[in-house]
Structures are given as C-alpha cells and as structure tokens.
Amino acid sequence: MRLRPPALLSFSNHLSKGISGNIRSGRETSSGFPSFVADMSTVSTEKDAVPVRTESTQKTPKPLQIAKRLEKFKTTIFTQMSNLAIKHGAINLGQGFPNFDGPEFVKEAAIQAIKDGKNQYARGYGVADLNNAIAERFKKDSGLLVDPEKEVTVTSGCTEAIAATMLGLINPGDEVILFAPFYDSYEATLSMVGANIKCITLRPPDFAVPIDELRSTVSRNTRAILINTPHNPTGKMFTKEELNVIASLCIENDVLVFTDEVYDKLAFEMDHICMASLPGMYERTVSMNSLGKTFSLTGWKIGWAIAPPHLTWGVRQAHAFLTFATSTPMQWATSVALRAPDSYYVELKRDYMAKKAILVEGLKAVGFKVFPSSGTYFVVVDHTPFGLENDVAFCEYLIKEIGVVAIPTSVFYLNPEDGKNLVRFTFCKDEETLKSAVERMKARLIKK
Ligand code: GLN
Question: Is the CB of residue 78 below 6 angstroms from any atom belonging to ligand 1?
C-alpha cells in the first residue's frame, strides 16, 4: 500500500514545497495565511514532542508513540474542524452532526430502559428485540428476509461495524477496492488490517463510477469492494446500472461487497438501492447501517451489520473482541426507533429537503459551483472562484475571515491533489444556522 503522510499536513506540505518548516512552526505560509495547519497539528499522531507534566520530567519532551499501522493518520478532520469552529466562533457546517435533537419518543424509550434496569451487558450480537427490529426494517427496505439471530450483529455505530467486518473478513495483504473520496475511517481501518488498498476515483460533476477502470481493477485477487451509498462526502447515489456492473464483477471474480448505507433514509433525488437485494449478491454482501443519521442521535453510536451466516461469523468474532457488546438501554431504545411509523421518515426527508434548498441555493448565490447531491446531508462545491490555492487554504480562510466551517476534501483521497478544488458543507443544522452561514458568506466572500 502506498504510504501517505498525515492527511492535512501532507497536502499543505505538498502544495507549498519548501515551507513545511513554516507550516509546522505556525508561521505564515506562502499563501499569506498564518498556518492553520499548525493549529490542527497540536494533536497530530506524528512523533512530535509534547511536554509531560510531572515533577521530574517537566521540561523533557516525550515523543508520542504509535504503532506503525496508524502512524500516518492524524486527528480526524471532523474533530479538527469542530475544534476550530469553537476556537474561532465559526458556524459549523463541517462535521456532520445535527445541531437539533432526536425525537422525544426515542429519548423516552432510552430513559425508560434505564429505569427498567436494562443496564448490564447486552448479548454480544445484540438485544434480541433490536435484532428483530433490524430484520423487520431490512425486510421493508430491501425485500430480503433475514434471520435476526444468525444474520444481524449490533455494533457500536456503523464505524465499528466497518471495523469488525474488515478485521473479521480481510487478511493482511488482501486487496480491497475503495471509491475515493472515501470516509476517513475506511482507510485507517484497512491500514489496521494490513490490507492492500486499490482506489478508484469518482470525479465531478457527477462522480460517476468509471466503469472501464473498475473492470480493469477487479480481478480474482480482489477480496472485497467497499461501497458507500448515498455517498459521503459527495451526496452521490450509486445508480442501478453502476450497482449491476459492480455486482456482476463481484460474482464473476468471487469478491465480497461491504456497503455503508447510513444515509439510506436521506435519499432525495432517487430511491436508495440496497446492493444485497441484487440477484446473487446477498450471499457475498455485508450491509451496514446505523441509528445516528436517521434519528439525529449521532452520539448514541448504535449500528449493525447484516450478512449471511458464513460472513456474520467473521464479523461477530471481531466484534466480540473489539467491544463485546453495545450499550444496552440504547439498544432497547433503538428497537423502538426502528419501528417508527412511515410518517417519521416522510417528515425527516421533508425537513432535510428544506434545509438542503437553503444551503444549495445559498451556496450558488454566494458564487460557488455546486455539484448535485442526491442523498446524505452533504453537498460538495468547487471553491476555486474565490482564488484560494487549495481546499485547505480555502477552509482556513473561510473559518478565520468569514466565520464558517467546511471540510476540505483532500483528506478523503489517497492522492490529496484530487480533492484540492473541493470542499464539503453539511446541511444537518437548523434553518436559522444555515441562513446565517449563507449570509456571512454572501456578505464577505468575494470572487477573485
Ligand atoms: N460522519 C461524520 C461526517 O462525515 C463525522 C463523524 C466523525 O466525526 N467521525 O461529518
């Protein structure tokens, strides 16, 4: 696997050759901005020295320690950006968490579960009632009937489901295909596994799958393909045609598919298609989802993986030794959430479409080139009309001079250059917040 230096730092270094010392020490960069990256690198996982506060070693800097499999990764971009939002009092359209609360009936169910004494370890693969609720929902969404006892595993968020799937089913050296831009945990988890990542880049304006490139990449050596639809950060939804091509390549070459479908209920422009529901695919697919996005409860960290028994075995074994079991009362509450009437999902979609319209129209009016987003609560734009040299410099400017946070996308590529013109905004915020962010940008962001 090609080694990539720590994400954000590496890209700035790459783009501003010869000034990496300045970036690290926080002096001005060649773009004229005080180093934004220096702020961010305070929690780098690189071997920077940090002072240790004890009597005897007060002034002795100790190098940070980390295993090789993680040394190239920095603090996640989402954490960095949310910290900067607080530091600069900027409106946070960066990290994807709603600034409004989840539904009362779900919160009440959690409180009730705690009061009812549902507070000790849950069964490792999930509270039976939740496994049932997940299977029921999957039947409704995909048409597939699964055995809640043998094919559903409850995890601590979809992030753990992904980690358990990779660790439980991928061997060191196995080839795994990702589509870039990709959610940051995929690469880090595959690095922990020691997998060999092959990356296919989805490019604007439509981020379509380059079919020929995919055909020439998939082979008998491919162990798995990871698909995220609706897709973070672009909002792309994989089309039926794309999924059919991927499916036939997987069947032909005996490849597994891991799907991250956490935004399936935020599908605005087309219907979500579950890869596992395509002919011949269930037996080779691990379908993953979670509570957080659909119920605006991202901090609860309840997720799940659905797979046939022969794949569930690996997932469950990894899960058993990663977290063993997931928060018991929150699992009980999640089973109530998943049985919400259809009207809940209709309202959720309606609310998000209104938010999306405010942000998308606003960003267009500000002067961005906005790429179409079919699902998720994200939208990607081209920032180059504003004359900044790359996505990191643009986000720095946006936070410090305009007071709005976005996410630079270069961190979601193996080759950061591919994302240098793109930044991601989220619209999972209340309408007032979205309007204020748009107003700030309209008033202060000037096209070059
Ligand atoms: N999924 C969220 C996003 O893309 C971030 C979650 C996290 O901070 N790890 O914004």
Answer: yes
In this predicted structure, the answer to whether residue 16 has a pLDDT above a threshold of 70 is no
Q: Is the pLDDT of residue 314 over 70?
A: yes
Rounded Cα distance, 406 and 413, in Å: 17
Q: Choose which residue among 83, 84, 97 to substitute to test ligand 1 binding: the one with the highest number of ligand atoms within 8 A of its C-beta.
A: 97
- Answer yes or no: is the C-beta of 289 below 6 A from any ligand 1 atom: no
- Structural domain boundaries of the chain? 72-102+343-444, 104-342
Q: By alpha-carbon position, which residue is closest to atom 8 of ligand 1? A: 78
C-alpha of residue 442 to centroid of ligand 1, in Å = 26
Whether residue 95 has its Cβ less than 6 Å from ligand 1: yes
pLDDT, one tens digit per residue, over 78-89 is: 999 999 999 999
pLDDT at position 52? 54
- Structure tokens, 371: 């790429």
- Coil, strand or helix: which one is 293? coil
Could you write out the DSSP letters of every residue in 217-256? H--TTEEEEEEESSPTTT-----HHHHHHHHHHHHHHT-E
The order of strands in the sheet holding 196-201 is: 152-155, 303-306, 285-290, 256-260, 222-228, 175-180, 196-201
- The yes/no answer on whether domain 72-102+343-444 falls in CATH 3.90.1150.10 is yes
Cα of 75 from ligand 1 centre, angstroms: 12
Segment 401-439, tens digit of pLDDT:
999 999 999 999 999 999 999 999 999 999 999 999 999
The pair of three-digit structure tokens given for residue 277, joined into one six-digit string:
């529901």
CA of 78 to the centre of ligand 1 (A): 6
Q: Which residues contact 184 (CB under 8 A, 6 or more apart)?
A: 7, 76, 77, 78, 411, 412
Cα–Cα distance between 366 and 382 in angstroms, integer? 12
- CA 77 – ligand 1 centroid, Å: 9
Q: What is the reported pLDDT for 329? A: 98
* pTM of the predicted protein model: 0.89
Q: Is-contact 373 96, C-beta < 8 A?
A: no
On whether the CB atoms of residues 148 and 194 are closer than 8 A, the answer is: no
- 14 residue type, one letter: H
Q: pLDDT tens for residues 347-381?
A: 999 999 999 999 999 999 999 999 999 999 999 99
- Find where tokens 């990894």 sit: 318
Q: Whose CA is nearest to atom 2 of ligand 1?
A: 96
Fold of 104-342: Aspartate Aminotransferase; domain 2 (3.40.640)
